[in-house]
Amino acid sequence: MDPKAKQSWAESLNPDVAKPRIIAKSIYVAAFESLKDSIVRHLRMFFCTGFDETGETIDPKYKTDVLARNKSAVYASLDWLKEHGAIDEADIETFGRVKRCRNTLAHELLSVLSLNGMPPDYEQCFADMIALLRKIEVWWIANVEIPTNSDFDGSEEIDEHGIMPGPIIVMRLLMDIALGDEKQARRYFDEFRKRAGDCAQEAPADGGRALRLRPAFKATHHAVGKAEVVDSRKA
Fold first, then answer.
1. Rounded to 5 degrees, what angle do the CA atoms 87, 93, 95 make?
2. Cα(146)–Cα(95) distance, rounded to whole angstroms?
3. In terms of pTM, does the model score above 0.70?
4. Going by C-beta distance under 8 Å and a sequence separation of 6 or more, which residues neighbour residue 76?
5. pLDDT tens, residue by residue, 56-110
6. Positive or negative CA dihedral for 68, 72, 76, 77?
7. Distances (CA, A) of 5 to 82, 88, 104
8. Which of 82, 120, 155, 227 could connect to 179 by a Cys-Cys bridge, CB 3.0–4.6 Å?
């Protein structure tokens, strides 16, 4: 067997190499879907006028003011956000870069698992993607959700740096649990069990689910730390 092909197969089949790459790829794709959802969902709900028996009722202006800008709802929404000062042209270019990286990860998995490894711009694209996600989420909170809240009288300045959007908390949780060390990964589950009481229990030895919840139980997210993505080739 050709030495290069042999090494490629060795990395693809080695769980110590393949697992971290698969996890890192999965988290990136999940983050990208969260970013797309943030771009489209907030704006669509902004034009939502209520609900009927078929679901949401959307103001016709959503089609003329937003969707008419581009055949893609994502890029149409990005253009609207740019026009209203939520993002700028550089942010749209950033979205294009992180999308290309996402496509590489999603469609060239075998290449990622082999000698090629993760795309060279993976870490930068991931950081830029999370920053863009936070920027959009914070803009909606600071410019729409808080000002339209009946409890907000406008007497206090909104501290955008102190806002921690839900999607960012979720992504940090995923990164800590999936990519953090064992102690860091388990502390959320241990804290959850402490707060949940008998609602949660350890997974049985027979390989059952790691977490079982009572149907009515609802968990809340708390402050989380930072995880680092490490390419096994550099570790």
1. 75
2. 26
3. yes
4. 66, 67, 68, 69, 70
5. 899 999 999 999 999 999 999 999 999 999 999 999 999 999 999 999 998 887 7
6. positive
7. 47, 44, 21
8. 227
